[in-house]
Specification:
The protein has 252 residues and is mainly α. It has nine helices and no strands.
Length: 252
């Protein structure tokens, strides 16, 4: 049997050698193609996961920055209120026109929070991406950060609501534009017990917002450290997004 096989092989040696070479070459080609395709797919998957992480943290960082800015405004407003309260009830006439004007300006100006739920949506819609991270505690920290962010946004809403109620109570006594002077304006400002209670609530909520945004900053820093994301990466992402927005705006 072996002699017959050898005879057949020797009679067709060139064909067998050519076939074997082609067959092995084909197998190698298929193997290399699958390996390259798999490597490319893996690289694209890793790049996509990283981009989702960067986009999520970029939006989250923007939300926190906006909350921090509004928290500073609210602390400044509370400082004005406390300066005026130091003159209540017997020395209201000692309140300067400048302080009275700044108080009314602060009350009349709503705080603008530019945050969105985009980061949270991106996180929940791509939860499988985050599950691929070795340190799964990151998922819990990110979830806690979103909860804290939403709580601080609600705190800011409460502060704006307090300012609206202050104005409503003042308006029940006299129209803001009808004050004869700043002394009368401040007497109306402190004219109801509810306003005094509201000022106490404002002080408490403004400090809650300030402390909460500080904690958010610490949580964000911890997330970035665990994911190995640098501020430079986020800055580059911002630049790319800005360039894309400029390009799209000039495309129409």
């Amino acid at each position: 049997m072996n002699r017959k096989i050898k005879a057949i092989y020797n009679a067709n040696r060139n064909w067998w050698d050519s076939f074997t070479s082609c067959f092995i070459g084909t197998l190698l080609g298929i193997g290399i193609t699958f390996w390259v395709s798999g490597a490319i797919a893996h690289r694209e998957k890793v790049e996509t996961e990283r981009r989702i992480q960067l986009l999520t943290l970029d939006d989250l960082q923007g939300n926190i920055a906006s909350l921090k800015a509004q928290g500073e405004v609210m602390l400044q407003t509370d400082s004005l209120f406390q300066q005026a309260l130091a003159c209540y009830p017997d020395r209201l006439d000692e309140i300067s026109a400048d302080l009275a004007g700044r108080i009314y300006s602060a009350v009349l100006t709503p705080s603008q929070y530019s945050g969105t739920r985009m980061a949270e949506t991106m996180f929940t819609d791509n939860i499988e991406v985050w599950k691929s991270i070795d340190d799964l505690s990151v998922i819990r920290i990110i979830g806690d950060t979103f909860v804290m962010q939403n709580d601080m946004a609600a705190c800011l809403d409460r502060l704006n609501g307090i300012k609206e109620r202050l104005l409503t109570n003042i308006g029940h006594q006299q129209a803001v534009l009808d004050f004869n002077d700043h002394h009368e304006a401040m007497r109306c400002f402190f004219g109801t017990k509810e306003n005094l209670n509201l000022l106490m609530q404002f002080q408490m909520q403004s400090h809650v917002l300030h402390l909460g945004t500080q904690l958010l900053d610490e949580m964000l820093t911890r997330i970035k450290e665990k994911l190995g994301i640098t501020d430079e990466e986020l800055a580059q992402l911002y630049d790319k997004r800005y360039e894309m927005e400029v390009f799209e705006s000039h495309s129409f």
